[in-house]
Amino acid sequence: MGLLNAINEWKASRYDNHVSKMKEANKCPDCRGRGFLLYPGNEYSYNADQFNCNGCNGSGLYSDWDSLT
Ligand SMILES: [Zn+2]
């Protein structure tokens, strides 16, 4: 028990809430249905500013995310 546990539980419940909302909309929770991830100001990449989402393989669909994860 402690503050760290409370924070972890809060994060987990926030994530579950996010996933259930995305599930209702059939959108990938990782990329929110865009099919790619944005990394504004990514210090590791100078050329690319977007990447295919690994969670849904770029489709942006919850059903794909669910079967791939
Ligand atoms: Zn995705």
Give structural notes.
The chain has one domain. It has helices spanning 3-24, 62-68, and strands at 36-38, 50-52. It has two helices and two strands. It has 69 residues and is mainly α. Strands 1-2 form a two-stranded antiparallel ribbon. The radius of gyration is 15 Å and the shape is elongated. The model has no long low-confidence stretch (mean pLDDT 86). The structure holds zinc ion. Zinc ion (ZN) is lined by residues 28, 30-31, 35, 53, 55-56, 60, 65.
Give the topology.
Elements: H1 3-24, E1 36-38, E2 50-52, H2 62-68
Antiparallel strand pairs: 1-2
Bound molecules: zinc ion.
Give a summary of the structure in a few sentences.
This protein is mainly alpha-helical. Helices cover 42% and strands 9% of the residues. It has one domain.
The small-molecule ligands in this entry are:
zinc ion
The spatial strand order of the largest sheet comes to: 1-2
Average pLDDT score: 86
Radius of gyration: 15 Å
Shape: elongated
**Termini Cα gap:** 30 Å
The overall number of domains is 1
Number of strand segments: 2
Work out the helicity level: 40-55%
Fraction of residues in β-strands: 5-15%
State the low-pLDDT regions, or none: none
Order of helices and strands: HEEH
